[in-house]
Specification:
This protein is of the alpha/beta class and about 270 residues long. The chain has 11 helices and 7 strands. It binds zinc ion (ZN).
Length: about 270
């Protein structure tokens, strides 16, 4: 079995994407050992296995159902047909032990989304960021279970948007303050700028923040922007050439680079 798409989150909070081809047979053997896990949950498409008790973590699983519902309601992304496997580890060391055993080629990162020819897999370990990591990586998993591809910057922007608890998405994302300040300082990135970032090395903290800002704008700003994003994702899902989202948004919204600044000004005045 080839694991050819591996996503992970770096320990300092910047998510990156790795495209790699790594031949190994770990993917299905790991599932076969599921009976060794201490706790499990089945929620919608998610089958979660943990080497610790999941008592007290119920809310984050409700959040996952909420993300799935909102991807459909807000952006027209329907649930995929695939199961998504989530592996939770009680400590960083048990997580790394598992990675060394089953995914030895994967660099050491705080959380992972792995997509191969079969179901998507999310791997996370218990930390202060556990719930954020689960929501972030599971957003990737939901998108990739329904869509054949997602542009890198948009994939991360959506994951950043949905990684906070549902009631924090509008006003309390940690990117908020830096976004407002970056616009005041005229530090801006257009969608076209972000679309040109096709390599991991080109996606830094600023790119993640701006990707989040565009997603926030498209979902909560002019209705035409949200509709165009939904149409773009529908074209991808249906196998139609989607073109560039930057071009489509520019047709749907007059002067989007100005409109996004106005959006954040009015949203947080
Ligand atoms: Zn990510």
């Amino acid at each position: 079995m080839k694991c050819n798409v591996i996503r992970w989150s770096q320990s300092f909070g910047v998510r990156v994407l790795l495209l790699a081809v790594a031949s190994h047979v770990a993917c299905h053997r790991a599932v076969a050992r599921a009976d060794t896990w201490a706790d499990h949950r089945a929620i919608g498409p998610f089958v979660c296995r943990a080497d610790f008790s999941l008592q007290g973590h119920e809310q984050v699983f409700h959040d996952l159902a909420d993300i799935q519902r909102d991807l459909y309601r807000q952006l027209g992304v329907p649930p995929g047909q695939e199961q998504i496997e989530v592996y939770l580890f009680r400590s960083r060391s048990s997580y790394h032990r598992y990675l060394r055993q089953w995914y030895p080629e994967v660099p050491s990162r705080r959380a992972l989304f792995i997509k191969n020819n079969g179901p998507g897999k999310v791997l996370v370990y218990l930390s202060d960021e556990l719930h954020t990591d689960i929501r972030h990586e599971c957003t990737h998993a939901l998108l990739h279970s329904s869509l054949p591809m997602v542009p890198l910057w948009l994939d991360e922007g959506l994951a950043e948007y949905y990684e906070v608890p549902p009631n924090a998405r509008l006003y309390r994302n940690p990117h908020r303050t830096a976004t407002v300040w970056s616009y005041r300082l005229w530090q801006r990135q257009s969608i076209a700028d972000l679309e040109s970032r096709n390599q991991l090395s080109e996606m830094g903290r600023d790119e993640y923040r701006h990707a989040w800002a565009w997603v926030h704008f498209m979902i909560n700003g002019p209705p035409a922007a949200r509709q165009e994003l939904a149409n773009f994702l529908t074209d991808i899902r249906e196998g139609k050439p989607p073109g560039e989202l930057s071009t489509r948004i520019a047709r749907a919204v007059p002067d989007p680079d100005r409109a996004i600044v106005q959006h954040f000004k009015s949203f947080w005045k």
